[in-house]
C-alpha cells in the first residue's frame, strides 16, 4: 500500500474557511523538514487547491508510474548554509551547516489542465478523488504526511477518514500511523464557534487532537518592531482549554511571510523586531552563503521560531503516544 512507508499521518483541520489552514500546513512542513524529517503534503482541498502556490511549484506536473502517481518534489534532503543564530551553529567547533529532510507534495492543482478552471463536482466525484489521492500516490519513505483539508465536516472529510482508517488498520501499517489532527482557528468568536464543530467531529470520529493553533492573532509591522493584536487574541487557547486539548500557540500575520510566498523575497525586518519575546532577523547566513530554496528563506521569517516550538511539541506528543 502507498502509506506503508509513512510513519505518521497528521490532518490539518478547521470548521471555518479562511483561517489559514494551508499557510499553517506549509509552515509545519517546512519546519519539520528543517528539523531533519522527511515530509509529504497532500492537498485534498479540491475546490481551492492552494498548496502548489504556497510552495512555489504551480507549474509542476505529477508523473505517472506503475501503480500510481509520483508526488512533486519541493526539495531533496540536503545541507543548508549555517546561520549565526541557529542552535545548529552553537557548538565549540564553530558554525555548522543544517541538514534538512526531503519535502514533496500532491494536489489536484498539479492535475488540472488549466489552473484557472473551476472544480464543479458533485459529492461522489469528490469522494472518489479523495480516495484516489489516498491510495494511488507513491510517496517516498516519510516521517510525516500532512493532509491539508477543506473547511467543514462534509464529503471529503468522511471519505478521508473512512479510507484512512481502513489503511491504518492493515497488518502492514506502522503502529499508530494516524497520529491525529492539528486544528486551526482565528481569535474571533465567529471563527471559534465554527471550529468547535470540528473539535466535536474529531471527538465523534475518534481522531486525536494533537493541538490547536490560533492563526492571525496579531500583526507584525514591517516598519517598526511592534506586533499588534489587531484581531484580539486568546480565543483559541480558551477553546482548547474547554475541550481539554493541547494549545500549541498563536501565530501573528507577518507581511514578510506573505512576500516570501507571493514574490519569493527573503524576509527582512527592522533592527530590534521582537515576536513572542524572541529577536528576529539575526539569522544571516555565515560567510555570505545563501540558498534560493523556500525552506532556506523561511529560516529568516519571524514565524520560523514559533513553528519550531510548535513542531517540537507535536513530535514529542506523537512520540509519547507511539512509545506508550
Automatic annotation (TrEMBL):
Keyword Cytoplasm assigned: yes
SUPFAM superfamilies in the record: P-loop containing nucleoside triphosphate hydrolases
InterPro entries in the record: Mrp-like_CS (IPR000808), Mrp/NBP35_ATP-bd (IPR019591), NUBP2/Cfd1_eukaryotes (IPR028600), P-loop_NTPase (IPR027417), YlxH/NBP35 (IPR033756)
Gene Ontology CC annotation, any one: cytosol
Record: residues binding ATP: 15-22
Gene Ontology biological process terms from the UniProt entry: iron-sulfur cluster assembly
This protein's UniProt keywords: 4Fe-4S, ATP-binding, Cytoplasm, Iron, Iron-sulfur, Metal-binding, Nucleotide-binding
Positions that bind [4Fe-4S] cluster: 221, 224
Source superkingdom: Eukaryota
Subcellular location: Cytoplasm
A GO molecular function held by the record: ATP binding
The family this protein is said to belong to: Belongs to the Mrp/NBP35 ATP-binding proteins family. NUBP2/CFD1 subfamily.
HAMAP family on file: Mrp_NBP35 (MF_02040), NUBP2 (MF_03039)
Protein name as catalogued: Cytosolic Fe-S cluster assembling factor cfd1
Organism: Amniculicola lignicola CBS 123094
Lineage: Eukaryota, Fungi, Dikarya, Ascomycota, Pezizomycotina
Amino acid at each position: 500500500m502507498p502509506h506503508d512507508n509513512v510513519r505518521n499521518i497528521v490532518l490539518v483541520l478547521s470548521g471555518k474557511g479562511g483561517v489559514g489552514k494551508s499557510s499553517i500546513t506549509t509552515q509545519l512542513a517546512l519546519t519539520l523538514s528543517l528539523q531533519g524529517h522527511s515530509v509529504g503534503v497532500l492537498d485534498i482541498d479540491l475546490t481551492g487547491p492552494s498548496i502548489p502556490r504556497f510552495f512555489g511549484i504551480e507549474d509542476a506536473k505529477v508523473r505517472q508510474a506503475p501503480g500510481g502517481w509520483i508526488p512533486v518534489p519541493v526539495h531533496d534532503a540536503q545541507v543548508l548554509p549555517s546561520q549565526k543564530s541557529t542552535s545548529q551553529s552553537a557548538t565549540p567547533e564553530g558554525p555548522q551547516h543544517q541538514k534538512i529532510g526531503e519535502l514533496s507534495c500532491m494536489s489536484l492543482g498539479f492535475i488540472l489542465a488549466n489552473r484557472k478552471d473551476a472544480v464543479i463536482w458533485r459529492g461522489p466525484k469528490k469522494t472518489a478523488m479523495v480516495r484516489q489521492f489516498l491510495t494511488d500516490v507513491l510517496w517516498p519513505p516519510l516521517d510525516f504526511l500532512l493532509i491539508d483539508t477543506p473547511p467543514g465536516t462534509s464529503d471529503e472529510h468522511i471519505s478521508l477518514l473512512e479510507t484512512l482508517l481502513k489503511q491504518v488498520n492493515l497488518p502492514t501499517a506502522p503502529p499508530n500511523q494516524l497520529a491525529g489532527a492539528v486544528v486551526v482557528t482565528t481569535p474571533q468568536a465567529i471563527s471559534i464557534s465554527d471550529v468547535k464543530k470540528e473539535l466535536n467531529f474529531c471527538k465523534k470520529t475518534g481522531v486525536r487532537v494533537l493541538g490547536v493553533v490560533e492563526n492571525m492573532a496579531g500583526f507584525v509591522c514591517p516598519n517598526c518592531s511592534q506586533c499588534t493584536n489587531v484581531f484580539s487574541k486568546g480565543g483559541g487557547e480558551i477553546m482548547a482549554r474547554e475541550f481539554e486539548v493541547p494549545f500549541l500557540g498563536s501565530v501573528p500575520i507577518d507581511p514578510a511571510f506573505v512576500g516570501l510566498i507571493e514574490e519569493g523575497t527573503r524576509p527582512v525586518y527592522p533592527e530590534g523586531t521582537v515576536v513572542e519575546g524572541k529577536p528576529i532577523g539575526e539569522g544571516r547566513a555565515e560567510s555570505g552563503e545563501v540558498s534560493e530554496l523556500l525552506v532556506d528563506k523561511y529560516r529568516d521569517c519571524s514565524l520560523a521560531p514559533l513553528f519550531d516550538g510548535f513542531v517540537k511539541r507535536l513530535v514529542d506528543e506523537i512520540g509519547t503516544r507511539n512509545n506508550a
